């Protein structure tokens, strides 16, 4: 991770050189910041991100300095910075809230509360540090604001869900799952175990794709937009992942003592992709509330 | 599916053993601004954390359509040209054989076929747009109430932009607006619809002083149950803040005002030629950053010169462009935005301009967020109040 103590001065020198070179382009002077202050901001980001020596240059070159300086000046209470920030990004904040939230009232509430936290007004109305201090300059400020809105929405929903009592849930007619049957066929257990183990052994990206597609019900286009690849690429990756999974599960079952015929019969009876369907349904019932997911959207086969 | 299996799956796919990534890290991941090692850690977390997946997808999908990053098309396979050579050659041979076997039919079509072909290929007579017919059509269109621009589903509430209630009423009353909507020209209505679609609809506030925020906060009822929202931005506090905020462009106001101009300025549309000229002139819009852009060459482009101010509304008629900026500033350009001049507004004007519309090179109207309505008949040089006397 971070460099050794001996290279600390070299790292500081690299940061200083970088800052001197990019100070003018950052428009830090618009907010009364001098080179020293600008260097301190960049150094703080580097310290927070803890890049290796090899990654330092990449990190520095990827920083959005103008937006970083703007956020720090806003957090410092600079009126010019606030005016610029509001002109550019308040629409983003509100439009993101209106896209994320389900209704207009909650969107307005969400955006207003975030606006307050960006301004540095903490819960209870006390003055605190601005949330803008958490922006590191990696990625766009607009994207960061959208992510903050989404995060706040999810957190808020989670908070609201915790406050819902069991009685209220029952009154609302929520159905709870019946206890499972005590006797489970041994063959199914072996299949379940093999499947769970092999899913855990997949590459993280493959598991992310499987979870997005089968558990969250995301479309290929949505996944593609997030990963910045075409949806057909996602489709191919998903097919490859499920094929790999099926192959490995079969091998594991054979290794555990099942004959090829038994394995094929079992695999034929319950296909790996079919298994995902009840799995997704069960996970959705137990761990996720319907608000996180669109009702009626069953996972699909790629 | 057995509960044991579910437990195993939950262990396999989560919950995450590490803490949740911050919004900063999630955004940097989505924008591919992380190092490979960091990105791998985030993916590892995302694969087992449904909530963080929800956040990244929500954030990604909340982007405006116009800012969506075009995804790269899947790499195409190399076209094997020779794979098509054989079928194409075979088809060519067959076609040649057919032509050779039926030379007479191919070279001398009967007059019947020629007549049919001529009949089929003859284009329908172009509609002759006689001026009288055009005027009649225009009059007929005037009798049809123009539909209001459809409000987008997720547009924010326009509470910030609503003008303060005027005790004496003003010319923008509901009945007049409806009458005006009936008389608005199709060209202007189209421009209005375009403005309503393109213009930023989010109000732009003047930065609130920190003391003001706390003052508003103190005024808020502390007993509300909504935590930070209720404590900081209660209805009263929001209303208080809304009064000091300056709205930028309000598409709804613009639409209403355009309609109102039609009512307040009868016969102001300048005839078909003027309307046509206005229709072919480039459209203008205000960006979210408060700058001007105009439509040229299939894309929006910033003018070479623009007023040095935060623009809140813009309208144009032919080469004439009027841009309203903050602090009641109105700029005019008579040459499609190449040169700008400041047009003074009356001393009595107050608030901020919320809507602006011109129906000819001379006739226009504007409205402020204090409920004032002004009209001009000399291209914006002088303005007269259209608010009824109290």
Structural features, described:
The complex is a heterodimer of chains A (302) and B (390). In chain A, 68% of the residues lie in helices and 0% in strands. Chain A has helices at residues 8-22, 35-49, 53-62, 65-75, 79-100, 104-119, 141-163, 166-171, 186-201, 204-215, 220-227, 231-255, 260-269, 272-287. The model of chain A is unreliable at 1-6, 176-182 and 276-302 (pLDDT under 50). Chain B is of the alpha+beta class. In chain B, 42% of the residues lie in helices and 13% in strands. In chain B, strand 6 (329-333) and strand 7 form a beta hairpin. The longest helix of chain B is centred in the first third of the chain and has 20 residues, at 82-101. At the A-B interface, helix 3, helix 5, helix 6, helix 7 and helix 9 of A face helix 1, helix 2, helix 3, helix 4 and helix 11 of B.
Radius of gyration of chain A: 25 Å
Count all strands of chain B and give the number.
Answer: 11
Measure the end-to-end span of chain A. 39 Å
Strand content of chain B: 5-15%
Label the structural class of chain A.
mainly alpha
The gross shape of chain B turns out to be flat
Rounded radius of gyration of chain B (Å): 31 Å
The level of helicity of chain A is 55-70%
Series of secondary-structure elements of chain A, N-terminal to C-terminal: HHHHHHHHHHHHHH
Low-confidence stretches of chain A: 1-6, 176-182, 276-302
């Amino acid at each position: 991770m971070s460099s050794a103590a001996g290279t600390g001065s070299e790292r500081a020198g690299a940061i200083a050189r970088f800052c001197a070179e990019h100070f003018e382009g950052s428009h830090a002077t618009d907010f009364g910041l001098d080179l020293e202050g600008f260097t301190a901001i960049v150094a703080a980001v580097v310290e927070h991100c803890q890049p290796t020596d090899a990654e330092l240059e990449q990190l520095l070159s990827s920083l959005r300095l103008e937006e970083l300086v703007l956020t720090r000046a806003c957090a410092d209470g600079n009126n010019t910075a606030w005016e610029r920030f509001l002109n550019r990004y308040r629409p983003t904040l509100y439009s993101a809230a209106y896209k994320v939230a389900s209704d207009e009232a909650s969107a307005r509430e969400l955006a207003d509360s975030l606006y307050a936290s960006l301004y540095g007004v903490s819960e209870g109305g006390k003055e605190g540090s601005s949330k803008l201090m958490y922006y590191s300059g990696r990625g766009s400020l607009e994207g960061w604001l959208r992510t903050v809105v989404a995060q706040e929405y999810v957190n808020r929903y989670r908070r609201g869900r915790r406050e819902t009592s069991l009685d209220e849930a029952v009154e609302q007619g929520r159905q709870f799952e019946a206890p499972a049957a005590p006797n489970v066929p041994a063959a199914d257990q072996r299949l379940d175990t093999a499947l769970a183990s092999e899913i855990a052994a997949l590459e993280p990206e493959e598991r992310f794709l499987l979870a997005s597609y089968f558990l969250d019900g995301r479309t290929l286009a949505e996944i593609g937009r997030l990963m910045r690849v075409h949806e057909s690429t996602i489709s191919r990756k998903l097919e490859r992942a499920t094929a790999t999974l099926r192959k490995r599960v079969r091998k594991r079952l054979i290794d555990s003592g099942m004959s090829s015929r038994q394995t094929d019969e079992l695999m034929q009876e319950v296909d790996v992709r079919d298994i995902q369907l009840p799995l997704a349904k069960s996970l959705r019932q137990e761990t996720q509330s319907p608000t996180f997911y669109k009702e009626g959207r069953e996972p699909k086969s790629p | 599916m057995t509960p044991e299996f579910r437990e195993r799956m939950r262990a396999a796919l989560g919950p995450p053993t590490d803490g949740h990534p911050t919004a900063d890290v999630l955004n940097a991941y989505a924008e591919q601004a992380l190092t490979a090692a960091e990105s791998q850690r985030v993916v590892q977390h995302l694969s087992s954390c449904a909530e963080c997946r929800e956040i990244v997808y929500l954030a990604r999908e909340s982007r405006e359509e116009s800012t969506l990053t075009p995804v790269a098309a899947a790499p195409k396979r190399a076209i094997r040209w020779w794979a098509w050579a054989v079928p194409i050659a075979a088809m060519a041979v067959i076609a040649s054989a057919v032509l050779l076997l039926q030379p007479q039919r191919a070279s001398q079509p009967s007059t019947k076929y020629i007549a049919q072909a001529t009949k089929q290929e003859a284009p329908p007579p172009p509609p002759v747009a006689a001026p009288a017919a055009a005027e009649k059509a225009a009059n007929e269109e005037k009798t049809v109430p123009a539909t209001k621009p459809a409000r987008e589903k997720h547009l924010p509430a326009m509470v910030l932009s609503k003008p303060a209630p005027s005790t004496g009423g003003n010319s923008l009353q509901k009945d007049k607006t409806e009458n005006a909507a009936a008389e608005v020209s199709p060209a202007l209505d189209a421009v209005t619809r375009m403005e309503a679609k393109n213009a930023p609809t989010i109000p732009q506030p003047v930065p609130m002083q920190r003391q003001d925020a706390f003052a508003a906060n103190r005024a808020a009822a502390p007993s509300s149950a909504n935590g930070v929202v209720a404590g900081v931005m209660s209805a009263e506090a929001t209303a208080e803040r809304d009064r000091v905020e300056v709205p930028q462009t309000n598409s709804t106001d613009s639409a209403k005002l355009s309609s109102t101009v039609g009512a307040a300025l009868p016969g102001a549309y300048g005839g078909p030629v003027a309307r046509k000229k206005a229709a072919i002139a480039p459209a203008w819009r205000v960006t979210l950053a408060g700058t001007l852009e105009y439509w040229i060459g299939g894309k929006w482009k910033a003018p070479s010169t623009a007023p040095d101010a935060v623009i809140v509304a813009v309208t144009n008629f032919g080469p004439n462009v009027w841009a309203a900026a903050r602090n009641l500033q109105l700029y005019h350009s008579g040459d499609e935005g190449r040169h700008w001049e400041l047009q003074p507004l009356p001393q009595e004007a107050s608030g901020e301009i919320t809507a602006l519309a011109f129906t000819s090179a001379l006739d226009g109207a504007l409205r402020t967020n204090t409920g004032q309505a002004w009209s001009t008949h000399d291209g914006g040089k002088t303005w007269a109040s259209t608010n009824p006397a109290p």
